[in-house]
Design goal:
heterodimer, A: alpha/beta, 10 helices, B: mainly alpha, abc type-2 transporter like fold, 2 domains, 4-stranded mixed β-sheet, 15 helices, elongated
Chain lengths: 302, 369
């Protein structure tokens, strides 16, 4: 559906996107996951034609990369920042963007109703966009992106800064739109959202480090993981242990990356006993997307 | 076309909700005209004057009376030494000092030139030139009277009769009000549109806008068109104030004035849109507007006659839209002339509009980086 081939883009001396190639298949939710500044937004802007890449090309639905204008009519884009008019009402915003595509008033009405049914924005038609909550603003932006009934939705961190409840809501909507047949390319800094995508591409410092389905990524993860809860808050607690390849501290627990959980377990217990730290919990867990990303990102740096 | 209309509608909706800006647009011509219409007086009268009369004769008093009778000089104090006169002028208490030597009356009677010294504070150019001119002519008139008596003449050999057309009474407001109107319109138009595009860029709304099929000329025209309405609203307010408060006669055709003003508005809007395409932030846009507007005010012939400017400056003035509009509006309002006399000016404004808008449309790229 979307083919991204060897895209490179630099701003001044900073390489934002470095030789990225990806393939988004029809009717999948493709998640571009990575920290702030990883190059996610730049890549999406290239896909939407807002930025001309230094090298590489994008092809949408098999179109000639040189003539994307037409293909982009079938693409709904929702930028990271709220990009609608705060001093226009919900309906005025929708009508405005609808008329950019020369839709009739009637068609705009119908389509808005259609999307409202999913986004539950009905009843807020005449509220100024500025007076909407963060979650509702995102729903409005999605509605505007949907006004052309595009086959592809490109969403840049749609849930950024939105409360957890609204985030869940928003993903429900995305699933529903996806079931209706839409291909969705979405970026997110949240690892829990990465689990919700069909395909995930980890992107860090402008490069794709790994891509695959969450299941596949977990299967390919070469290490095992121990979760430890102890009465200590020292982030470097396990640094001195050789069997522990990497440790991440999450406030109340540690995730330890080890090659072999069975072998590492006694070493960890030993280590804590020597330090006189009581063990509250110690068990092997399945890696989360976050674990995988952290580990991949560190390999990249190391 | 439908997209242009959608942009225009959107602009009007936003304008309507931005009450402050809208208020300023209407209050501006009202307040500015009232302030400047009264404040700007190029004719300087009632200049404070100090007299040091060492002659103390009927003749010296007679000449001093002539000075005061002209209306240009107000004798606000008398002095009894040169140092006193110097002090008065140094301190700014007086702008002009009139000094009669002790032998003034005597010389006059003898037929020897009777000298009078008139000291003028030329640190204020406007006051000085007026004072010098009037003082000289008073001297001439008085001398004439004496000469006539001596030669027993009934009238002067030359009879120059001056008829100041279009503004026989030399009322400053007639001259200034139409010009201020031009300045207000160009100021508002340039400033309002200079932030038009850059504001969307700053707010991030441009990003959403440029993924749509909206063409750059459609965006520019849609952005500019609503301001034309505002421009006309301003002109109407300004003309009403001019006619009702300052009694400026509108001698030419009001219809023609409105029609020809269109090209001035479009030229100003074009300039604003161009700035908006170059500037990266609203702040920059504002600064650039000022950079453009100040020369407009100073070099267009609003303040100083362009004929008196050095050639280079004169030609810089020729690339300012206001220069041509001042000729149009003064022409129509004061001289009562019409389009046939103003073809050149109108053409110039049309060229400005086309160039500014053209560059703006070409310069606008549907990209963000």
């Amino acid at each position: 559906m979307i083919r991204i081939a060897n895209i490179t883009k630099a701003f001044g001396g900073n390489i934002a996107v470095n030789d990225v190639s990806l393939h988004v298949k029809k009717q999948e939710i493709f998640g571009l996951v990575g920290p702030d500044g990883a190059g996610k937004t730049t890549l999406l802007r290239v896909v939407c034609g807002l930025i001309t890449p230094d090298r590489g090309a994008v092809s949408i639905m098999g179109s000639d990369p040189q003539r994307l204008e037409g293909a982009r009519e079938n693409l709904g884009y929702m930028p990271q920042r709220f990009s609608l008019y705060g001093d226009l009402t919900v309906m005025e915003n929708i009508s405005f963007f609808g008329s950019m595509y020369k839709l009739s008033r009637q068609a705009i009405r119908e389509r808005a109703e259609e999307v409202f049914a999913v986004t539950k924005l009905s009843g807020f038609e005449h509220r100024l966009a500025d007076n909407l909550s963060g979650g509702m603003k995102q729903k409005l932006a999605l509605t505007c992106a949907m006004i052309t009934r595009p086959g592809i939705l490109v969403l840049d961190e749609p849930t950024y800064g939105v409360d957890p409840e609204s985030r869940k809501d928003f993903w429900k909507i995305l699933y529903r739109l996806n079931q209706e047949g839409r291909t969705i390319l979405v970026t997110t800094p949240y690892m829990d959202e990465a689990e919700l995508c069909h395909t995930v591409a980890f992107i860090n410092q402008g490069r794709v480090i790994k891509a695959g389905s969450p299941l596949q990524l977990k299967r390919d993860f070469p290490y095992q993981l121990l979760e430890v809860m102890v009465g200590s808050r020292d982030p470097d607690l396990f640094r001195s242990l050789d069997l522990v390849l990497d440790s991440s501290f999450y406030g109340d627990k540690y995730h330890l990356v080890v090659a072999d959980a069975a072998a590492a377990r006694p070493a960890v217990i030993d280590h804590l006993a020597r330090l006189n730290i009581p063990v509250l919990r110690l068990l092997q867990i399945a890696p989360t997307m976050e674990d995988i990303f952290v580990s991949l990102a560190e390999q990249e740096v190391g | 076309m439908s997209r242009i209309l959608a942009v225009i509608k959107k602009e009007f909706l936003q304008m309507r909700r931005d009450r402050l800006t809208l208020g300023i647009v209407f209050a501006l011509p009202l307040v500015q005209l009232l302030l400047f219409g009264y404040a700007i007086q190029t004719e300087v009268k009632h200049i404070s004057t100090v007299v040091f009369d060492q002659s103390l004769s009927p003749e010296s008093r007679d000449l001093t009376d002539s000075f005061t009778a002209s209306g240009y000089f107000d004798v606000t104090s008398t002095a009894n030494s040169y140092t006193a006169v110097t002090r008065m002028i140094d301190s700014g208490q007086a702008k002009v000092g009139i000094i009669y030597p002790p032998d003034f009356a005597e010389n006059l009677k003898k037929g020897v030139p009777a000298q009078v010294q008139v000291v003028v504070d030329a640190s204020d150019n406007m006051v000085a030139s007026q004072a010098v001119a009037v003082a000289n002519s008073i001297g001439l008139i008085k001398s004439q009277q004496v000469l006539f008596q001596r030669a027993r003449l009934q009238s002067a050999p030359y009879d120059v009769r001056v008829r100041p057309w279009y503004n026989p009474d030399g009322i400053t407001a007639y001259y200034m009000v139409p010009a201020i109107l031009g300045i207000i319109v160009t100021m508002t138009m340039v400033m309002m549109t200079s932030v038009a595009i850059v504001r969307e860029r700053e707010r991030g709304t441009l990003e959403q806008l440029i993924v749509t099929p909206l063409k750059s000329y459609e965006l520019m025209i849609g952005k500019v068109a609503p301001s034309i309405v505002l421009g006309y609203a301003q002109i109407t307010v300004a003309l009403l104030v001019g006619a009702l408060v300052f009694r400026v006669p509108i001698r030419g055709s009001l219809l023609q004035l409105y029609l020809l003003t269109l090209f001035f508005i479009t030229a100003s809007l074009g300039l604003g849109v161009l700035i908006s395409n170059i500037a990266k932030t609203q702040m920059q846009a504002m600064q650039m507007s000022f950079f453009v507007l100040l020369p407009s005010i100073l070099l267009s012939g609003f303040m100083f006659p362009r004929e008196a400017m050095p050639k280079v400056i004169y030609y810089i003035g020729a690339v300012i839209p206001l220069t041509y509009y001042l000729q149009i509006i003064r022409g129509i309002v004061l001289k009562g002339i019409g389009f046939p006399y103003l073809i050149g000016q109108v053409t110039a404004l049309l060229i400005f509009s086309a160039i500014f808008m053209g560059i703006a449309i070409l310069k606008f790229q549907k990209k963000i980086a």
